[in-house]
Structures are given as structure tokens and as C-alpha cells.
Amino acid sequence: MDEVVGKIVDNKQIIFKGYIEGVPKESDMELRLGNKIKLEAPKGSAAFLVKNLYLSCDPYMRTRMRDFHASYIPPFLPASVVQGFGVFKVIDSDNPNLKPGDIVSGFTGWEEYSLLHDTEQLRKVEADNDIPLSYYIGLLGMPGFTAYAGFYEVCAPKRNERVFVSAASGAVGQLVGQLAKLHGCYVVGSAGSNQKVDLLKNKLGFDEAFNYKEEPDLDAALKKYFPEGIDIYFENVGGSMLDAVLLNMRIHGRIAVCGMVSQTGIGAPDQQGIRNLLSIVPKRVKMQGFLQSDYLHLFGRFVEEVGSLYKEGKITYLEDMNEGLESGPAAFAGLFTGKNVGKQVICVSRA
Amino acid sequence: MDEVVGKIVDNKQIIFKGYIEGVPKESDMELRLGNKIKLEAPKGSAAFLVKNLYLSCDPYMRTRMRDFHASYIPPFLPASVVQGFGVFKVIDSDNPNLKPGDIVSGFTGWEEYSLLHDTEQLRKVEADNDIPLSYYIGLLGMPGFTAYAGFYEVCAPKRNERVFVSAASGAVGQLVGQLAKLHGCYVVGSAGSNQKVDLLKNKLGFDEAFNYKEEPDLDAALKKYFPEGIDIYFENVGGSMLDAVLLNMRIHGRIAVCGMVSQTGIGAPDQQGIRNLLSIVPKRVKMQGFLQSDYLHLFGRFVEEVGSLYKEGKITYLEDMNEGLESGPAAFAGLFTGKNVGKQVICVSRA
Fold first, then answer.
1. Is the C-alpha dihedral spanning B196, B201, B207, B208 positive or negative?
2. What are the pLDDT digits (tens) for A140-198?
3. Fold of domain A8-138+318-347
4. Among candidates A226, A297, A279, A286, which has minimal Cα distance to A256?
5. I need a surface site. Which of A268, B34, B129, B199 has the fewest CB within 10 A?
6. Across the A/B interface, how many CB contacts are shorter than 8 Å?
């Protein structure tokens, strides 16, 4: 280890400037230089001092950028360090469960080093040379688990069912589609560029994929790919796509909703409104909002199953790696313009 | 029996004139005189000739008034007799399961006498002097069963949960509220007149009720009656009420949707659109469209349970009885303006 316990070092940070409305922009966050940190976990604090390696850009973080306290997660504090999921290395620890050198995933700060107290969402990462460390905030982290819990627990899939995934090349959607294929389903994904469509079909194994930006009539596009309708819709975008899907659901279909963030504003209500909700009655459709955090009892099984599938080559995972803490604000804002191809990750340090 | 088998008699009918858009009007149907019918079930036909006693006005019938064949039920034929649920008496039968004098509920025509073939949805009514015959198309018929199946099977209620019912004095809503009270829930209903609100509170036993037409801010009204939020919403209306409810659901709340017909157009998409659907994610709300016909295995249990509750005086049921077949078109149109107080029934004949 290069980091000497007790040393005082420079600690670059990404700061959340203040509450926003609408779509996040790069300028909503800024790099702060000049912060110093002592690489030490004070005795009696139960805290631990970590070096951040990989930081996760996730759409849910937008809900923390507004001054709204009744959500399941509190807002960021203006002028404070951005927080999110990360993978980090313990430098010093006053916590009996952690020791220097441990690799851990959990909530951390968008900075080079963090003194952490919260152990609630922490998971030790077992060394495995076949799995990149960054995957523990993607494929094997919250986004992957969202796909796993949402697909198996909320969608309750059956073999040969017809599955549609929006934002299908994203951190969650790409795994949903692959799990659905492994489950024996017919799977179609939508994405916002021809490059992504190509990846869905040729790298991620979707049966079909389309660029929603090139479809003037989403209802017609869905009817083309699902002439007999959709059994399962894994909803990531909301808005006009959801409205078109509602017209194409099959009887007893299921819609799992983990977010509608790519095209519509969280916080701001959907400006256009969903007009075809009525169709859930004759089709007896179930629409279920969910959060992965309700299914954490399954997390161990998830890591084992999906980790094995990955190592067997049966699952692949696309990451969009951004180099350096400085890349954070642009990487985060890029989530909302569809700039990222795959899971958006910030690499602060590789070790 | 006054009706002599084999006699040819006048048969007044209510005719569906042709496909409509928007809200049904009285003029969409008309009385037809001059039809004659022979009071006889032809040998070898397996048919049965019935005298119609009570006919049911139900919101779902609007879905049959448009030229749309992909629904769960086909459209009416223009210039043909309106069809719907009814209670009727068998005059003559070539069907081995039915004999003259039997009282039966099921699909029939809006006319004085009908020659029926379909035995799929028929149920014999067991003579019970304590239960009005008309209740077999209301409390103990499709609307009552919609309430029963929707509340118990879709909403999965728990004691002490907070239940909101819209269109609460209607054929379905009034039973949902009473079942919820018997289940130990806190129950609030909304309706469209002060008379209905009074009935909900003072006759049907709701904890609270309000006139949505007198509430300029539905969100504020719901927050007043549900300061801790809503666990279960039995959805009958859609539109702005649903949008307000979505803002007030509790975590893991359930919304059972059997129709959104009172305020919004079936067939026509909701003009305004639902804007707060996003809130189902942080609240993990399940929204489930359903049809009572998926739960028919429970029908026997339903009739026994709800029939007993009624006879024990634990449940009451409001009917809006319209005298004479001629009253049909206005009675049906009245459903969509909130004119009816309770279950809308047409009495063709009392015996």
C-alpha cells in the first residue's frame, strides 16, 4: 500500500452545488481542490478511512438533488460532497469488521479518500481475479440487483414469455434482457442510438432491438416486434414509451417499474401524462413499483448466481468507464442525455 | 304463471342505435315497439324462453358501444337489442338444466321476453324471501363480486389499513367500503353529491366521506382524511382523483383498478393523462387491473358470505330502481353523470 496511515494528504472532491429542477447538468457539481484529509480512523470512532476506487453514476441520485425530504432517501446537502455507491479500499480502520486492505462496496463520497461511519450498506468484496472490481457497483451491485429482483420477483417470468426492456443497454436493462434470454424468453430492447441497438443485438444477445429515436410511431414499432403483445415490460423510461407499451400488453401482463428517469423528470411530474392507463383493466395488467432494497434477503443468492453466470461466459456487462474523479460531473449528467453506453462508472483509482 | 307457453305476445325492446364516442347519452338507445315473440323454446334447440324481470345498468357496457373488437367483450351490434346482466324467469325450456318457473341471473336482452341460448354465465337463483331478486344483479351479482374479488384478492387487505374508495356509493364501491369496515379497516369514500356523502357516512358506515365536486384541491382533501396516507385505493374513476391518490399512497400500497369510467372515457384515452405515476416507485405501489371474471372459482363462497352478511343486517345495499323497460336509456346514461344513487337497476316486471 502506498498510503501511509496517519499521513495528511490532498483530497480532491466533487461538490453538489445546490438544488436543481429538471434535468441535471454538468455544472450542478464542481471539483473542489484544497481539502486535506488525515489517513486515519480515530480511535473509539468505529469509523474507517478508505481510498475510493470506483464511483457509480446512478439515475436515482437525481432524486437527491432536489429539496424534497419525503422520499425514501434524503437529499444531498448543498455545498457538500456528492454521495453514492462506490468500491473502495480500507486504509485504516477502527471498525472491528474491517481491516486495512479490505475491498468494500457501499455508500461513500465522491472524493479521493473518505472517512466513513455507516456500515449499513457495506459489503466486503471477496477477491476474485475473474471479476473486475468496478462490477461490484454494476453487474454485482445495486443496478444488477435491481435487474435480478425486478425480473424474477416482480415480473415472475415464465419460459417463452415476451419481454420488452426500455433503456435496454443501461446498467439495469442490459442484465434484465440477458436474464430473460437465459430464462427462455423472447426479448426486445429499446435504446437511443444505433450503436446501442447494435450492441443489444450482437453483444448482449437480445432477439431484437430498436432505436426509439428513429421510430415516429412507438405503438407501431411495438406491434412489429410483438405481434402477439408483451407479457413483461421492464420499465425504465416512462412517458410516451410507457403509453405505447400499455396499448400492447397481453392479458395478465406485468410491468415492473424501477424508474422512469431517462426521459421524464423525477420530482417534476410527467408533463405529458400517461393516457392509456385504462387498458390495464381489460388486460388485467399488474404495474408494480419496486426498489431493490426491499429484496436484500436475496442479495447473497444474486451475487452467487450472477457472478457464476458471468464467469461461465453466459452473461456480459457493458461499462462506460470515465477516468478520474474530475470526470464525475459530466459522467453523471451524461446519464440523462443517453451519452453513456452501459453502466456509467468513474474510476478514481485502480488500486 | 300468466304467460301461456306457445302464445305470441308483444315484446317491447331497447335498441342500441349505433357506435358512439365519448359519454353515452339517452338518445344512443331507443324503445322499439312492434316486435312479437312466441313464448316457446323450440324443440331440439337447447334454448329457453324467459321473461325479463330486472336489468342491470353497468359502466362496462359503454365498452360495447364502440366499434372495437379487441376487448375482452365484443361490441353491441347496431340496431340490435341491448344486452346485459339481468334476472329473469323461465317460461319454457328445451334446456335440461332449466324448467319453467326457475329464476335465473345471467346475460339477457333489454326486452320483455328473450329466447336465450348461452348458458355460460347463467346462475340459478335460489328462492330466498329475505333477499330481493334484483340483488342478484347487484349485491350478489357481478358488481358485488367485483367488490369482493377486488377487495380480498387484489387489495389483500390487513386489519387497520387505510382504505379509500372512489365512486363509493355506486354498485361496487358501496360494498367495498362495507367489506373494508367489517375487515377492521379505516374507510373513506368520495362521491359526487352531498346526498351520497350523507348516505356513505350515515347509512353505509364509512368512517368519512367527501363530495369531490366541492374539493378544489383533491390532494389536500386526501391529506386531510389520510394524514398518514392510503394503504388501499379501490379505483373506480381515474383522472385527477387517481393523480391525487398517487401522491398520497403509503409504502407498499395497493391500487385495484376495475374501471375508470365515471369521469374519463373508456375507449377514448384519458385526455389529461396521469402525471404522478412516478410515485409508485419510491412507495413501491402495486397497481392492478382486474376483471371479476378471473375469480369465478370464488363466486359460490362470495354469494354465501355476502348473502349471510346481508341477512344478518351487517351489510346494506342501495339500489336506484327505475320502473319499466322504457326507463332503460335514461337510466344507463345517468350512470355517467352520477345521477344514480346506488346500483342502477331497471325493473321490467316484478314477477
1. positive
2. 999 999 999 999 999 999 999 999 999 999 999 999 999 999 999 999 999 999 999 99
3. Quinone Oxidoreductase; Chain A, domain 1 (3.90.180)
4. A286
5. B129
6. 110
Task: Tell me the chain A residues in contact with residue B288 when contact means C-beta distances shorter than 8 Å.
Answer: 280, 284-287
Strands B286-289 and A286-289: antiparallel
Superfamily assignment of B142-293 in CATH? NAD(P)-binding Rossmann-like Domain (3.40.50.720)
Q: Residue holding cell 447494435?
A: A198
Q: What is the ipTM of this complex?
A: 0.90
pTM for this model (two decimals)? 0.92
Which residues, 6+ apart, have CB-to-CB distance to A191 below 8 Å? A167, A168, A169, A197, A200, A209, A211, A212, A338
Indicate yes or no: CB of A72 within 8 angstroms of CB of B269: no
Q: What is the pLDDT of residues A45-87, one digit of tens each?
A: 999 999 999 999 999 899 899 988 777 789 999 999 999 999 9
Q: Where are the domains of chain A?
A: 8-138+318-347, 142-293
Strand partners, B163: B187, B232
Give contacts of A238 with chain B, Cβ < 8 Å.
277-278
To test the contact with chain A by mutation, choose from B281, B293, B295, B296 the residue with the greatest count of A C-beta atoms within 10 A, namely: B281
Residue A347 C-alpha cell reads as 474510476
pLDDT single digits (tens) A284-336: 999 999 999 999 999 999 999 999 999 999 999 999 999 999 999 999 999 99
